[in-house]
Amino acid sequence: MQRINLNLGLTIVVLFVLMGMLGPLFLQDSDKIPSIENQLRPPDSEHPFGFDENGYNLFSRIILGARIALIVGLFTTLISALIGSIIGAISGYFGGPVDELIMRIVDILMSFPGILLSISIIALTQNPSYSMIIIALSITSWVPYARLVRSQTLSMKNRDFVVAARAMGAGDFYIIRRHILPNCFNSIIVQATFGIASAIIAESALSFLGIGPQDSASWGALIDSGTQYLLIRWHLAFFPGLFLFFAVIGINMLGDALRDRLDPRLRV
Amino acid sequence: MKEFILKKILISFITIVGAVSLVFFIIHLIPGDPVENLLGEQALSVDKDRIRKNLGLDKPIHQQYIVFIENLAKGDLGESLYKKGQKVSTLIAQRFPNTFILALSAMLVAISLAMGAGILSSLKRGTIIDTTIMAISGFGISIPAFFLGPLLLLIFCRWWKVLPPPASQEGILSLVLPSITLGFALAAFLSRLIRSQMIEVLSEDFIRTAYSKGLSKKRVIFKHAFSNILVVVITIVGMQFGSLLTGAIITERVFAWQGIGTLMIEAISKRDYPVVQGTIILISSLYVVINLLIDIMYALIDPRIRYAKDQS
């Protein structure tokens, strides 16, 4: 089972990354111009994914969507993992009122449905940009990293190597940077892998609700416009959804495999 | 015990106040002028000023905030920018029952699917039935509702044609697919929980005793085993009801269901910020209050939780 997770997960993730990074370079000019006669054209042997309601080749839209998913997933995760780990380490290391304050903020964010917060941040902006989406998603998703790193810091801060470093005259932030955070690295990586999958889903959900960037090829936006033509054309919503589903499953499988290898304590 | 409940209520209260303030400030501080959106860019600045004054938008933000909180305390969420005199609370009251019905029936779908699947796979542990059920639930956990919904529509309305298309609103039948879409992820998660809990309970001594007393298998499974895991199941289901309310936002869009989620999305696309604000506040407060009630109920039912939490 572990082998299957690792191999299959890794394969899907590599394909997804290649598709998002290199795919758009292979698009031909004909893919970038919508053609009226191709509007809603169903899949055939030459174009296995058919055309969308504007006459774009659906596969070219899906490739652009992969790039969006990749960028939003990676950057959201990078930002929230970085911020969350630092906050968590500070909270756990210093304790006291700082810890109390941070944990109350965490409590509030945890008892508030994340997607609603993201929705309210981008709700009234005209045509939000992708950086806006990344910020809106990061604001809620740093919380799990903070909790994770805080609990590990708590168990680590009185261990011999930290005490020794302090006795050698190391400062608090030096200890956090050089001794505590590197020791949390494995768990952060595992958490971040799952984080990428949920960021991709969240971004698609926002685009599906029609409040993401306009005219975007995000998989969520493609599913949304496809749903309107569902009873005449099946392929419009089906293919983008399929790619989203496999990307998420692949990333989660890789996450499971990484967890088993890097951080067996987290196994459920 | 009293202390625990009071602490929980206090935290929930702070959360709601925090959430309400956050939503207010986010919406009011974000670039983009609601008045300009309302009147169009070519509007005369006299008209803009008049509208701004009518809506109280000409005052400094902290005064607007105080007025907003005072009105909120009276249950007044303001008026829609589009229909004159249309109260946000009336709009919400019209749409909320639909969302509630959807969330409730999704919960029923989830519970019944999960009970059947979970108990069955715990009894047939390791067989092909168990593997299949677990594979389906793995699928259910990973698939986002905005893909599952269109997929179900394709299968049941287009290929199989057993259910009416979503726009037709044919009573109970049009509730079937939305509830499955919304409840499927919960069902998948719950069936795994029930399975693992059942496997644990079935290996206990009192189950062997019950069998050796000569009780029927049915009686042992439902009366002795299942009733023991009921507390856990009820808690999880209760805690998820809040998530069903937020999940409904997406499901409602798939099926054009006239609930509070579609109200919110319509308001967002029209930049009708009092309605946006009102719907977000309502959904988030409900979410917090439901979780609070479940927490308290759980502590009342299960003394172990109570003592563990008292000590911490």
What would the keywords be for this entry?
A: 268 residues, mainly alpha, MetI-like fold, 11 helices, elongated, B: 312 residues, 80% helix, 0% strand, flat
Globally, the shape of chain B reads flat
Text of the CATH class of chain A = Mainly Alpha
Q: What ranges of chain B have pLDDT less than 50 throughout 5 or more consecutive residues?
A: none
Mean pLDDT of chain A: 85
Radius of gyration of chain B: 24 Å
**Gross geometry of chain A:** elongated
Distance between the termini of chain A: 15 Å
User: How large is the share of residues in beta strands of chain A?
Assistant: under 5%
User: In angstroms, what is the radius of gyration of chain A?
Assistant: 22 Å
Continuous helix count of chain B: 13
Q: Helix count of chain A, per DSSP?
A: 11
Roughly what fraction of the amino acids of chain B lie in strands? under 5%
Which H/E pattern describes the elements of chain B? HHHHHHHHHHHHH
Main sheet: strands, sense, barrel of chain B = none
Kindly state the number of beta strands of chain A: 0
Helix content of chain A: over 70%
The helix-and-strand class of chain B reads mainly alpha
Please provide a written account of the structure.
The complex is a heterodimer of chains A (268) and B (312). Chain A is an all-alpha fold. Helices cover 73% and strands 0% of the residues of chain A. Chain B has 312 residues and is mainly α. Chain B contains 13 helices and no strands. Chain B has helices spanning 2-29, 34-39, 45-55, 61-73, 88-123, 128-142, 145-159, 173-202, 205-212, 217-255, 260-270, 273-301, 303-311. The two termini of chain B are 12 Å apart. At the A-B interface, helix 4, helix 5, helix 9, helix 10 and helix 11 of A face helix 1, helix 7, helix 10, helix 11 and helix 12 of B.
